[in-house]
């Protein structure tokens, strides 16, 4: 095979008055991925480009750019993602004059799911508000739909192609300058200073603490008792490690600096990890109990509907495979000072500033994700085999989406497997942060909440310390691909490997829609849940029953088998029927499959009565088709029982319901 040299970066021309800001609001990272891709697209047109989350930018800063591109997901019930809320609130200030954004040119692209009632509401609200403030629409809004055959790409790819053409039309390049070709390597955004001098005294300061508060924080960590503090040559850098877990799983110790660097972070200690499905059942579902410790000055308050975000780690075996594949053994354990990079670190990189490449690969860089087209394009520049390079470039092209799907998406190939397939790819270690995606936290709905019985006795109302015990109902991801390879989700593998007492990096993610509390508890509740979607329902029911006055609740629950998949059955059976009535649908327990929407239609009178009583409706589960079927079933119940005499009136009444939906 013909050999070639790896590509060298092509410089972007510095042209005055030519700059683009790409801002994203993202919960799961999809909007960030698209924003990064748009950033590279406009950079190849010789625009000075910045990509960042919306909350990181002040409103006034947007006026400094030639164009601002907003990429925004809709979350929850038509809500803005958390990392866009500060920016959004700044747009809603009453003191803003109608024409104050008159010099801003913008365009927007939304990521949504049409199974939700408020499809792409976030981007529509943003687009409308910018127009109200006088901003000029440079290019029409684009809206992607997860329900399309090709997902978001079906709308995004033609939209981005049109945007590129509009930019070249409105901002033609000077004579003699052409766009940077797609096959050319752009300058790296981040270059890791492998082996740089580490100033051990220059440690990461936890937000919100002075030196006295910082030392008090670490004293409290030591007083937890289930942890030990392992210190290196300086007493300033603490690490958290569970000695009891060493025989089972021994990753690098958890850094207190990483805990404090993570937004809304809590330190989670694994208290129980129990399987709730039979050992022989195909689905391994765990009831995981966590002790949550909070060390920040601001109070921590957890409610039903909230989530815990867990940050998993790669296995040492996979990290060793990657290091061997990339020939990084000589540099993997050298000291790495991220402060030596200068400027900003990659968004979502929550770690100590003083680390090693091996720790980054273990804790921060996602090496088992399905590679996006942009990753395949990035590694093509580091090939030394012409055939490998040609193949990787093809996968990254819009015209070869089917080939990319057949190679990467359909068989669920991992990044690690791709690098082992293309052995001529040798990524320079300094480029690791520029090439690999960052591990994102996984969100799990809380199934139970209570103040922790092990709260530190010395804690006071003013102490940077609070504690909760929460339970999560987690279905572990494990399946066989079309290549007959067994796949296990990164977080699933991580959780099953941990022993009781192990520390886990976590964060509290509050719900943007509050349906809990004593006033909501007095309203009737109609919950429609399938599988582990029962988790937030359980937390809400438990809270409602804790009040002296609570309205009646009706639960429609669906799964495959009563004997194997009926979560919390004993709890539901122990409750009086005047407080909770349960209707079930177990699709595989009889010859004819029965689903939750079928039971809803059968109980039309019950549903109609709840509609008349202005009940709270919540729908939770792992299927958008289920959510749409439940919505249609509720509307059908209105028509069948005479609540509404026309389809149009039924649709209008449905739009007025309190309808909370959580689908993953």
Automatic annotation (TrEMBL):
Pfam families: FAD_binding_1 (PF00667), Flavodoxin_1 (PF00258), NAD_binding_1 (PF00175)
Alphabetized InterPro entries for the sequence: CysJ-like_FAD-binding (IPR003097), FAD-bd_FR_type (IPR017927), Flavdoxin-like (IPR001094), Flavodoxin/NO_synth (IPR008254), Flavoprot_Pyr_Nucl_cyt_Rdtase (IPR001709), Flavoprotein-like_sf (IPR029039), FNR_nucleotide-bd (IPR039261), NADPH_Cyt_P450_Rdtase_alpha (IPR023173)
Residues given in the record as FMN binding sites: 26-31, 73-76, 111-120, 146
Catalysed reaction equations from the record: 2 oxidized [2Fe-2S]-[protein] + NADPH = 2 reduced [2Fe-2S]-[protein] + NADP(+) + H(+)
Compartments, record wording: Cytoplasm; Mitochondrion
Required co-factors: FAD; FMN
Main location: cytoplasm
PROSITE patterns: FAD_FR, FLAVODOXIN_LIKE
Example of a GO MF term: flavin adenine dinucleotide binding
Domain Flavodoxin-like, residue spans: 20-164
One GO cellular component term: mitochondrion
EC number(s) recorded for this UniProt protein: 1.18.1.-
Positions contributing to FAD binding: 412, 442-445, 489-492, 659
Domain FAD-binding FR-type residue range list: 263-525
Assigned keywords, A-Z: Cytoplasm, FAD, Flavoprotein, FMN, Mitochondrion, NADP, Oxidoreductase
Subunit structure: Interacts with DRE2; as part of the cytosolic iron-sulfur (Fe-S) protein assembly (CIA) machinery.
Family designation: In the N-terminal section; belongs to the flavodoxin family. Belongs to the NADPH-dependent diflavin oxidoreductase NDOR1 family.
Function of the protein: NADPH-dependent reductase which is a central component of the cytosolic iron-sulfur (Fe-S) protein assembly (CIA) machinery. Transfers electrons from NADPH via its FAD and FMN prosthetic groups to the [2Fe-2S] cluster of DRE2, another key component of the CIA machinery. In turn, this reduced cluster provides electrons for assembly of cytosolic iron-sulfur cluster proteins. Positively controls H(2)O(2)-induced cell death.
Protein name in UniProt: NADPH-dependent diflavin oxidoreductase 1
Lineage, uppermost ranks: Eukaryota, Fungi, Dikarya, Ascomycota, Pezizomycotina
